[in-house]
Amino acid sequence: MSDAHILEATTKTVHWGYFDAAQAPAATINSGDTITINTVSGGPDVVPDGDFHIPPELHDIHATVPRKLPGHILTGPVHVSGAKVGHVLQVDILEVSLRQDWGYNFIRPGAGGLPDDFTETSQMTIRLHADSNEGELPWGKRLPLRPFFGVMGCAPPADWGAISSIQPRAHGGNMDNKELIPGATLYLPIFVDGALFSAGDGHACQGDGEVCVTAIETALQGVFRLTVRADMQLSLPQAEDAENLITMAFNEDLDVAAKDALRQMLDVITARNNLTREQAYSLCSLTADLRITQIVNGNKGVHVVLPKSAL
């Protein structure tokens, strides 16, 4: 029988700005166990004044946890017993919920999808209403919330050393894929024994593209089931939900990311069906959607969504 675990966000269980295969695990679980992971978000400059709930550990993290590289505050890593290099980590996303009643969004000159169009930093606090599942913008408009983790990833290969959490790569990381909500399953290549899974960069809602470089950034709680898949091999993250298969790729060149994600989908189709690669290519042209995941993290992202009903 699988066990359930809880990993709080504390000064001992978060790492700020990076992934690193050499990092000691914050928790160890067995394959198939569930783990609840609490996360926090942002530096001291985004903490609002007023009657908002501030997770108390956030101040301690700001005061004592070094920001090793530019990037996100991540909770983890979680060592999954039995995970070996070359295996795949199956991440079943069971629940995602808000941990605070506010989020933030900012624009920074020289960043985002329009890096030369804005010359001043702009930041806003957005009140989150859990009862109605809405985010209230400063001008009064309310947006429906669809919380997900912008960052979910295993440790990168050891020879990469410590890498920023900003750029999504083969290990996952800052994918910013809004399809990865409860009910979805993420598949991540494993590059170090134990997998070393971390999560963070909570988003209350986000559009494909994340064009200004931030979503509604906030603290989230996630419940995940982590399962080692020795029967799978992947070079890039993939995902699925009840209705769709999803392949992903990342590159500084958006065209290259699109081609790599599409090639991954052709691999999925031909592995699941008795179709030629030519037939799979045609099927994608008729039924698959290529979506721009994000264009703001150095390595841009594209995900291909194929309805399972098309197979």
Topology (elements, then pairings):
Blueprint: E1 4-7, E2 14-16, E3 18-19, E4 27-30, E5 34-38, H1 56-64, E6 73-81, E7 88-98, E8 102-107, E9 122-129, E10 134-136, E11 142-144, E12 148-153, E13 163-164, E14 172-174, E15 185-189, E16 195-203, E17 217-218, E18 220-229, E19 238-240, E20 244-251, H2 254-272, H3 277-287, E21 289-294, E22 300-307
Parallel strand pairs: 1-5, 4-6
Antiparallel strand pairs: 2-6, 3-13, 5-18, 6-16, 7-15, 7-18, 8-9, 9-10, 10-11, 12-14, 12-16, 15-19, 16-17, 19-20, 20-22, 21-22
From the structure above, extract its key features.
22 strands; 2 domains; 39% strand; seven-stranded mixed β-sheet; Jelly Rolls; mainly beta
Question: Would you write up a description of this structure?
Answer:
The chain is 13% helix and 39% strand. The chain has helices at 56-64, 254-272, 277-287; strands at 4-7, 14-16, 18-19, 27-30, 34-38, 73-81, 88-98, 102-107, 122-129, 134-136, 142-144, 148-153, 163-164, 172-174, 185-189, 195-203, 217-218, 220-229, 238-240, 244-251, 289-294, 300-307. The two termini are 34 Å apart. It is built from three helices and 22 strands. The mean pLDDT is 97. It has 311 residues and is mainly beta. It has two domains: 4-233, Acetamidase/Formamidase-like domains (Jelly Rolls, Sandwich), CATH 2.60.120; 243-310, Roll (Endonuclease I-creI), CATH 3.10.28. The chain has a nine-stranded mixed sheet with strand order 1-5-18-7-15-19-20-22-21. Strands 2, 4, 6, 12, 14, 16 and 17 form a seven-stranded mixed sheet that branches. Strands 8-9-10-11 form a four-stranded antiparallel sheet, with no helix packed on it.
